[in-house]
Write a structure and sequence with these properties.
Elements: E1 2-5, H1 17-25, E2 28-31, H2 34-43, E3 49-52, H3 58-70, E4 75-77, H4 91-100, E5 104-107, H5 112-120, E6 127-132, H6 137-145, E7 153-158, H7 163-174, E8 178-183, E9 191-196, E10 209-213, H8 228-237, H9 242-253, H10 257-260
Parallel strand pairs: 1-4, 1-5, 2-3, 2-4, 6-7
Antiparallel strand pairs: 7-10, 8-9, 8-10
Helix pairs in contact: 3-4, 6-7, 8-9
Length: about 270
């Protein structure tokens, strides 16, 4: 049997009795970083054989996992923190186990993005978790563009060295939406910081971040039923110049000004 086990994301007390029972019953534990997992096991006085399973060796680890299960071994799979597979290794293992017809289960527990969603107070009835923004900037922009009309909360993971750049790209695509940065979840210095995209200043960053961004408010503003050009022209008719109208229409639609700029071409402005 293979059990994927969620582990604490900060406070070591946030582990379930079932998770501890599963780890104690395992013959071998597959883990992302043996040093990190050893701290958790030592805290609960659990001694087990550990096998490293990370993004660089997950395929070979999957083959080894299958062999051990065939030998009758009871296996537990953990990552450094939180629920395996969620922006962490484990998905390939699940796929291989499924293909081989091997039974597996999940021992649920902590998950950073769900904890951050609760702490933020942002709408939680509809949300999209997009994990870490990876690849080239052009690839990040392409991904984010797909969600410009999504009216639920958008959730991202961000490393401390990337968070300011990630916020910059989010601002470029989504304009001046309300956002939230949550860090050090369940730890002593847990914090929830609210800000507006495009108005946050770079500062020293520490710890892993969860970034949350309000969704597009397309259903709440009747002007959003207009075409993009008509929307901009409406504000110009109210006395705004083209630049002001563009900014307000972008804010209404929850998108960046650059996305609407092409619709201003040919529009005349008084000032």
């Amino acid at each position: 049997m293979v059990s994927f086990v969620a582990t604490p994301i900060g406070n070591l007390g946030d582990i379930s009795l079932r998770a501890l029972e599963t780890l104690r019953a395992a013959d071998i534990i597959f883990c992302e970083d043996t040093r990190h997992t050893l701290k958790l096991l030592n805290h609960y006085e659990i001694k087990k054989q550990l096998v490293a399973c990370h993004k660089f060796n997950e395929r070979s680890s999957a083959e080894k996992l299958v062999d051990l299960v065939m030998e009758g071994k009871n296996i537990a799979v953990v990552t450094d923190a939180g629920t395996p597979v969620i922006s962490d290794p484990g998905n390939l293992l699940v796929q291989v186990l499924r293909e081989k017809g091997i039974s597996y289960t999940l021992i649920p527990g902590a998950c950073a993005f769900l904890a951050a969603l609760v702490l933020s107070g942002f709408p939680a009835d509809k949300f999209a978790f997009l994990g870490f923004l990876r690849g080239k900037d052009s690839e990040k922009r392409e991904l984010l563009q797909r969600y410009t009309r999504f009216d639920g909360t958008l959730i991202f993971y961000s490393a401390p060295q990337d968070v300011d750049k990630d916020i910059e790209i989010l601002s470029e695509i989504y304009g001046e939406r309300e956002a939230c940065a949550v860090r050090e979840i369940t730890k002593i210095h847990e914090s929830v910081e609210y800000f507006t995209l495009g108005k946050v200043t770079a500062q020293e960053r520490r710890g892993e971040y969860v970034l949350l961004v309000h969704g597009a408010e397309t259903e709440n503003n009747p002007l959003n039923t207009l075409s993009e050009k008509e929307h901009i022209e409406y504000y110009i008719a109210q006395g705004m110049n083209k630049k002001e109208a563009l900014k307000q229409a972008a804010k209404d639609r929850g998108v960046s000004k650059s996305e609407l700029y092409k619709f201003t071409i040919g529009i005349e402005s008084e000032t």
